[in-house]
Design a protein that fits this description.
28% helix
Length: 363
Protein backbone atom coordinates (compact mmCIF):
# COMPACT_ATOMS: atom_id res chain seq x y z
CA UNK A 1 0.00 0.00 0.00
CA UNK A 2 0.96 3.69 -0.11
CA UNK A 3 1.83 5.96 2.78
CA UNK A 4 3.49 9.33 3.39
CA UNK A 5 6.64 8.69 5.43
CA UNK A 6 8.51 11.25 7.53
CA UNK A 7 12.13 10.12 7.68
CA UNK A 8 13.49 12.65 10.19
CA UNK A 9 12.20 15.41 12.46
CA UNK A 10 12.53 18.72 10.65
CA UNK A 11 12.26 17.25 7.15
CA UNK A 12 10.50 19.57 4.74
CA UNK A 13 9.13 16.78 2.57
CA UNK A 14 7.42 13.43 3.05
CA UNK A 15 8.32 10.39 1.00
CA UNK A 16 5.32 8.86 -0.73
CA UNK A 17 6.12 5.16 -0.61
CA UNK A 18 4.23 2.26 -2.16
CA UNK A 19 6.16 -0.52 -0.41
CA UNK A 20 4.41 -0.09 2.94
CA UNK A 21 2.58 -2.74 4.96
CA UNK A 22 0.85 -2.63 8.33
CA UNK A 23 1.94 -4.77 11.25
CA UNK A 24 -0.92 -6.87 12.63
CA UNK A 25 -3.64 -6.94 13.66
CA UNK A 26 -2.68 -8.75 16.81
CA UNK A 27 -5.03 -9.74 19.61
CA UNK A 28 -7.42 -6.94 20.50
CA UNK A 29 -6.56 -4.91 17.37
CA UNK A 30 -8.38 -3.82 14.22
CA UNK A 31 -7.08 -3.26 10.69
CA UNK A 32 -8.79 -0.37 8.92
CA UNK A 33 -8.88 0.77 5.31
CA UNK A 34 -8.50 4.56 5.63
CA UNK A 35 -10.92 6.43 3.40
CA UNK A 36 -10.41 10.00 4.66
CA UNK A 37 -7.80 11.61 6.91
CA UNK A 38 -7.86 15.14 8.29
CA UNK A 39 -4.73 17.29 8.39
CA UNK A 40 -4.20 18.73 11.87
CA UNK A 41 -1.79 21.26 13.35
CA UNK A 42 -0.58 18.46 15.61
CA UNK A 43 0.80 16.73 12.52
CA UNK A 44 2.85 19.83 11.75
CA UNK A 45 3.99 20.04 15.38
CA UNK A 46 5.19 16.44 15.20
CA UNK A 47 7.12 17.23 12.00
CA UNK A 48 8.92 20.11 13.68
CA UNK A 49 9.54 18.39 17.01
CA UNK A 50 6.95 20.31 19.00
CA UNK A 51 5.28 17.03 19.86
CA UNK A 52 7.37 13.93 20.58
CA UNK A 53 7.47 11.57 17.63
CA UNK A 54 9.89 8.68 16.94
CA UNK A 55 10.96 8.37 13.32
CA UNK A 56 10.69 7.16 10.66
CA UNK A 57 6.96 7.64 11.01
CA UNK A 58 3.66 7.80 9.21
CA UNK A 59 1.83 10.81 10.65
CA UNK A 60 -1.89 11.52 10.73
CA UNK A 61 -4.34 10.69 13.53
CA UNK A 62 -7.72 12.02 12.34
CA UNK A 63 -9.32 9.36 10.16
CA UNK A 64 -12.33 7.29 9.17
CA UNK A 65 -12.64 4.14 7.11
CA UNK A 66 -13.78 0.52 6.94
CA UNK A 67 -12.81 -2.51 8.99
CA UNK A 68 -10.70 -4.92 6.94
CA UNK A 69 -9.74 -7.44 9.60
CA UNK A 70 -10.09 -7.97 13.34
CA UNK A 71 -7.63 -9.61 15.69
CA UNK A 72 -8.26 -12.34 18.20
CA UNK A 73 -10.71 -11.36 20.90
CA UNK A 74 -12.47 -8.65 18.88
CA UNK A 75 -16.05 -9.85 18.55
CA UNK A 76 -18.02 -6.59 18.40
CA UNK A 77 -16.72 -5.34 15.03
CA UNK A 78 -16.98 -7.05 11.67
CA UNK A 79 -15.33 -6.70 8.29
CA UNK A 80 -17.03 -3.87 6.41
CA UNK A 81 -18.09 -1.86 9.47
CA UNK A 82 -17.57 1.88 9.09
CA UNK A 83 -15.51 3.42 11.88
CA UNK A 84 -14.04 6.67 13.08
CA UNK A 85 -10.57 6.51 14.61
CA UNK A 86 -10.19 7.52 18.24
CA UNK A 87 -6.49 8.42 18.55
CA UNK A 88 -6.66 8.23 22.36
CA UNK A 89 -8.13 4.77 22.98
CA UNK A 90 -8.70 3.83 26.58
CA UNK A 91 -7.82 0.67 28.45
CA UNK A 92 -10.84 0.83 30.76
CA UNK A 93 -8.93 -0.39 33.80
CA UNK A 94 -6.26 2.17 34.77
CA UNK A 95 -6.75 4.69 37.56
CA UNK A 96 -7.77 7.42 35.11
CA UNK A 97 -10.40 5.26 33.42
CA UNK A 98 -11.77 4.17 36.80
CA UNK A 99 -12.04 7.82 37.85
CA UNK A 100 -14.09 8.66 34.76
CA UNK A 101 -11.19 10.50 33.10
CA UNK A 102 -10.67 8.34 29.98
CA UNK A 103 -9.05 11.24 28.09
CA UNK A 104 -6.07 10.93 30.47
CA UNK A 105 -5.52 7.23 29.75
CA UNK A 106 -2.24 6.74 27.91
CA UNK A 107 -2.12 2.94 27.86
CA UNK A 108 -2.54 2.46 24.12
CA UNK A 109 -1.09 5.76 22.91
CA UNK A 110 2.24 5.10 24.61
CA UNK A 111 2.62 1.88 22.64
CA UNK A 112 2.82 4.07 19.56
CA UNK A 113 6.12 5.46 20.84
CA UNK A 114 7.72 2.08 21.42
CA UNK A 115 6.02 -0.25 18.94
CA UNK A 116 6.28 0.26 15.16
CA UNK A 117 2.98 0.09 13.29
CA UNK A 118 4.31 -0.28 9.74
CA UNK A 119 7.04 -1.80 7.65
CA UNK A 120 8.40 0.47 4.93
CA UNK A 121 10.38 -1.93 2.84
CA UNK A 122 12.49 -3.63 5.49
CA UNK A 123 12.37 -0.71 7.94
CA UNK A 124 10.08 -0.74 11.01
CA UNK A 125 8.16 2.54 11.06
CA UNK A 126 6.07 4.21 13.74
CA UNK A 127 2.55 5.58 13.46
CA UNK A 128 1.65 8.91 15.03
CA UNK A 129 -0.25 8.31 18.28
CA UNK A 130 -0.25 4.65 17.33
CA UNK A 131 -2.29 5.47 14.21
CA UNK A 132 -0.56 6.80 11.08
CA UNK A 133 -3.57 7.94 9.06
CA UNK A 134 -1.49 9.25 6.14
CA UNK A 135 -1.50 5.65 4.96
CA UNK A 136 -4.07 3.62 3.07
CA UNK A 137 -4.38 1.14 5.95
CA UNK A 138 -3.78 1.32 9.69
CA UNK A 139 -3.97 -0.98 12.70
CA UNK A 140 -5.32 0.37 15.98
CA UNK A 141 -6.29 -1.03 19.37
CA UNK A 142 -9.96 -2.05 19.47
CA UNK A 143 -11.04 1.03 21.50
CA UNK A 144 -9.43 3.15 18.76
CA UNK A 145 -12.15 2.16 16.28
CA UNK A 146 -15.58 3.63 17.01
CA UNK A 147 -18.36 2.16 14.89
CA UNK A 148 -20.61 4.64 13.09
CA UNK A 149 -23.57 4.34 10.75
CA UNK A 150 -22.78 3.59 7.13
CA UNK A 151 -24.46 6.76 5.86
CA UNK A 152 -22.05 9.10 7.67
CA UNK A 153 -19.61 10.40 5.01
CA UNK A 154 -16.02 9.37 5.68
CA UNK A 155 -14.70 12.93 5.54
CA UNK A 156 -17.28 14.12 8.07
CA UNK A 157 -16.52 11.18 10.36
CA UNK A 158 -12.78 11.84 10.11
CA UNK A 159 -13.11 15.37 11.51
CA UNK A 160 -14.94 14.07 14.56
CA UNK A 161 -11.91 11.93 15.46
CA UNK A 162 -9.77 14.88 16.55
CA UNK A 163 -10.45 18.50 15.62
CA UNK A 164 -14.19 18.61 16.24
CA UNK A 165 -14.02 16.50 19.39
CA UNK A 166 -11.21 18.67 20.73
CA UNK A 167 -12.89 22.00 19.99
CA UNK A 168 -16.51 21.24 20.82
CA UNK A 169 -15.49 19.10 23.79
CA UNK A 170 -13.40 21.91 25.28
CA UNK A 171 -16.54 24.03 25.48
CA UNK A 172 -19.25 21.53 26.42
CA UNK A 173 -17.25 18.94 28.39
CA UNK A 174 -14.26 20.71 29.93
CA UNK A 175 -15.63 24.20 30.51
CA UNK A 176 -19.34 23.31 30.57
CA UNK A 177 -20.27 26.75 29.23
CA UNK A 178 -23.82 27.73 30.16
CA UNK A 179 -26.44 29.66 28.16
CA UNK A 180 -25.93 33.40 28.25
CA UNK A 181 -22.24 33.32 29.17
CA UNK A 182 -19.48 35.05 27.22
CA UNK A 183 -16.67 33.29 25.35
CA UNK A 184 -13.53 34.29 23.49
CA UNK A 185 -11.72 31.81 21.25
CA UNK A 186 -8.10 32.56 20.32
CA UNK A 187 -7.11 30.87 17.06
CA UNK A 188 -9.56 30.17 14.24
CA UNK A 189 -8.19 27.08 12.55
CA UNK A 190 -10.17 23.85 12.51
CA UNK A 191 -10.15 23.34 16.28
CA UNK A 192 -10.97 26.99 16.92
CA UNK A 193 -13.93 26.86 14.52
CA UNK A 194 -15.12 23.72 16.29
CA UNK A 195 -14.87 25.54 19.63
CA UNK A 196 -16.89 28.42 18.21
CA UNK A 197 -19.56 25.96 17.12
CA UNK A 198 -19.44 24.40 20.57
CA UNK A 199 -20.02 27.81 22.16
CA UNK A 200 -22.99 28.37 19.87
CA UNK A 201 -24.39 24.95 20.81
CA UNK A 202 -23.92 25.74 24.51
CA UNK A 203 -25.94 28.94 24.14
CA UNK A 204 -23.16 31.47 24.76
CA UNK A 205 -24.50 34.99 24.23
CA UNK A 206 -21.20 36.53 23.16
CA UNK A 207 -18.71 34.53 21.10
CA UNK A 208 -15.58 36.44 20.08
CA UNK A 209 -13.16 34.95 17.57
CA UNK A 210 -9.56 36.17 17.67
CA UNK A 211 -7.06 35.52 14.90
CA UNK A 212 -4.10 37.39 13.43
CA UNK A 213 -5.32 36.47 9.92
CA UNK A 214 -8.17 38.85 9.10
CA UNK A 215 -9.43 36.54 6.36
CA UNK A 216 -10.51 34.09 9.05
CA UNK A 217 -12.85 36.54 10.73
CA UNK A 218 -15.70 36.16 8.25
CA UNK A 219 -15.28 32.39 8.42
CA UNK A 220 -15.58 32.50 12.21
CA UNK A 221 -18.77 34.56 11.97
CA UNK A 222 -20.24 32.01 9.55
CA UNK A 223 -19.83 29.30 12.16
CA UNK A 224 -21.33 31.25 15.03
CA UNK A 225 -18.97 33.99 16.24
CA UNK A 226 -20.82 37.16 17.18
CA UNK A 227 -17.63 39.24 16.84
CA UNK A 228 -14.19 38.72 15.28
CA UNK A 229 -11.02 40.75 15.83
CA UNK A 230 -7.26 40.65 15.68
CA UNK A 231 -5.43 40.36 19.04
CA UNK A 232 -4.73 44.09 18.92
CA UNK A 233 -8.44 44.86 18.82
CA UNK A 234 -9.49 42.50 21.59
CA UNK A 235 -9.13 44.93 24.49
CA UNK A 236 -11.33 47.58 22.88
CA UNK A 237 -13.91 44.98 21.92
CA UNK A 238 -13.95 43.61 25.46
CA UNK A 239 -14.67 47.10 26.76
CA UNK A 240 -17.51 47.37 24.26
CA UNK A 241 -19.22 44.01 24.84
CA UNK A 242 -18.37 43.24 28.48
CA UNK A 243 -18.01 46.73 29.89
CA UNK A 244 -14.33 46.03 30.46
CA UNK A 245 -15.08 43.21 32.89
CA UNK A 246 -13.74 40.50 30.58
CA UNK A 247 -15.13 37.21 29.32
CA UNK A 248 -16.43 34.29 31.35
CA UNK A 249 -14.28 31.86 29.33
CA UNK A 250 -11.16 32.33 27.21
CA UNK A 251 -10.16 29.37 25.04
CA UNK A 252 -6.53 29.34 23.86
CA UNK A 253 -6.37 27.05 20.84
CA UNK A 254 -2.86 28.19 19.85
CA UNK A 255 -1.15 27.80 23.25
CA UNK A 256 2.05 29.78 22.91
CA UNK A 257 3.17 32.14 25.70
CA UNK A 258 1.76 35.25 23.99
CA UNK A 259 -1.68 33.76 23.35
CA UNK A 260 -1.94 32.29 26.84
CA UNK A 261 -1.21 35.72 28.28
CA UNK A 262 -3.82 37.19 25.92
CA UNK A 263 -6.35 34.62 27.13
CA UNK A 264 -5.51 35.41 30.76
CA UNK A 265 -6.00 39.13 30.19
CA UNK A 266 -9.25 38.56 28.29
CA UNK A 267 -10.88 36.46 31.02
CA UNK A 268 -12.77 38.33 33.72
CA UNK A 269 -11.83 38.12 37.39
CA UNK A 270 -13.10 34.75 38.50
CA UNK A 271 -13.28 33.60 34.87
CA UNK A 272 -11.70 30.57 33.29
CA UNK A 273 -8.83 30.17 30.83
CA UNK A 274 -9.04 26.87 28.93
CA UNK A 275 -5.80 25.62 27.33
CA UNK A 276 -6.80 23.69 24.20
CA UNK A 277 -3.63 23.80 22.07
CA UNK A 278 -0.62 21.60 22.78
CA UNK A 279 2.07 24.28 22.44
CA UNK A 280 5.68 23.22 22.86
CA UNK A 281 7.41 21.73 25.87
CA UNK A 282 10.12 24.40 25.95
CA UNK A 283 7.65 27.30 26.08
CA UNK A 284 7.21 28.87 29.49
CA UNK A 285 4.62 31.33 30.81
CA UNK A 286 5.12 33.29 34.02
CA UNK A 287 2.42 34.28 36.51
CA UNK A 288 3.04 35.92 39.85
CA UNK A 289 1.47 34.34 42.93
CA UNK A 290 -0.26 37.64 43.62
CA UNK A 291 -2.08 37.83 40.30
CA UNK A 292 -3.09 34.18 40.53
CA UNK A 293 -4.62 34.85 43.93
CA UNK A 294 -6.02 38.32 43.35
CA UNK A 295 -7.58 37.67 39.94
CA UNK A 296 -9.24 34.45 41.09
CA UNK A 297 -9.09 32.99 37.59
CA UNK A 298 -8.82 29.31 36.80
CA UNK A 299 -6.46 27.88 34.19
CA UNK A 300 -7.62 24.44 33.12
CA UNK A 301 -6.38 22.08 30.40
CA UNK A 302 -8.63 20.43 27.87
CA UNK A 303 -6.97 17.31 26.47
CA UNK A 304 -8.95 15.94 23.55
CA UNK A 305 -12.01 17.88 24.68
CA UNK A 306 -12.21 15.75 27.86
CA UNK A 307 -13.64 13.11 25.54
CA UNK A 308 -15.37 9.85 26.18
CA UNK A 309 -15.23 8.74 22.55
CA UNK A 310 -17.83 5.98 22.75
CA UNK A 311 -20.30 8.49 24.16
CA UNK A 312 -19.28 11.74 22.51
CA UNK A 313 -18.70 10.66 18.89
CA UNK A 314 -22.32 9.55 18.67
CA UNK A 315 -23.51 12.82 20.18
CA UNK A 316 -21.53 14.84 17.66
CA UNK A 317 -22.96 12.81 14.79
CA UNK A 318 -26.47 13.35 16.18
CA UNK A 319 -25.86 17.12 16.25
CA UNK A 320 -24.55 16.95 12.67
CA UNK A 321 -27.68 15.05 11.58
CA UNK A 322 -29.87 17.67 13.26
CA UNK A 323 -28.12 20.44 11.34
CA UNK A 324 -26.78 22.02 14.50
CA UNK A 325 -23.13 21.16 13.87
CA UNK A 326 -21.72 22.07 10.45
CA UNK A 327 -18.98 19.56 9.71
CA UNK A 328 -19.04 19.43 5.92
CA UNK A 329 -18.73 23.22 5.85
CA UNK A 330 -15.46 22.98 7.77
CA UNK A 331 -13.82 21.07 4.94
CA UNK A 332 -12.13 23.77 2.91
CA UNK A 333 -9.85 21.54 0.79
CA UNK A 334 -9.93 17.93 -0.40
CA UNK A 335 -6.52 16.61 -1.40
CA UNK A 336 -4.67 13.50 -2.50
CA UNK A 337 -2.05 11.75 -0.40
CA UNK A 338 0.76 13.03 -2.61
CA UNK A 339 -0.31 16.60 -1.76
CA UNK A 340 0.48 16.21 1.94
CA UNK A 341 3.46 18.59 1.79
CA UNK A 342 1.21 21.31 0.37
CA UNK A 343 -1.44 20.59 3.00
CA UNK A 344 0.95 21.08 5.93
CA UNK A 345 2.43 24.21 4.35
CA UNK A 346 -1.08 25.68 4.04
CA UNK A 347 -1.94 25.39 7.74
CA UNK A 348 -2.66 28.84 9.12
CA UNK A 349 -3.59 30.27 5.73
CA UNK A 350 -6.74 32.37 5.67
CA UNK A 351 -8.69 30.09 3.35
CA UNK A 352 -7.93 26.89 5.29
CA UNK A 353 -10.28 25.51 7.92
CA UNK A 354 -9.79 21.76 7.65
CA UNK A 355 -8.07 19.87 4.87
CA UNK A 356 -8.91 16.23 4.22
CA UNK A 357 -6.80 13.66 2.43
CA UNK A 358 -9.16 11.50 0.38
CA UNK A 359 -8.08 7.90 -0.14
CA UNK A 360 -9.52 5.89 -2.98
CA UNK A 361 -13.33 6.01 -3.28
CA UNK A 362 -14.11 7.99 -0.13
CA UNK A 363 -17.45 9.72 -0.10
Amino acid sequence: MRAAVLQAIGDEKFEIRDDVSVIGPGPGEVRIRVRAAGVCHSDLSACHGGLPQPVPAVLGHEAAGDVLEVGEGVDDLAVGDRVTVNWLPTCGSCAYCRRGEPYLCMAHVMTGYVMPRFMVGDTPTFGMAGCGAFAEEIVVARPGAVKIDSDVPYEVAALIGCGVMTGVGAVVNTAAVRPGESVVVIGCGGVGIAAIQGARLAGAAVIVAVDTVAAKHDVARRFGATHAVTPEGLSDLSTEVTGGEGFDYAFDVVAVPQTLRTAWSAARRGGTVVVVGAGRDEHKVEFSPFELLFEGKRIIPSLYGSANAERDFGRLIALWRAGRLDLAGMISHRLRLDQIDDALAALGRGDVIRQVIIHDTAE
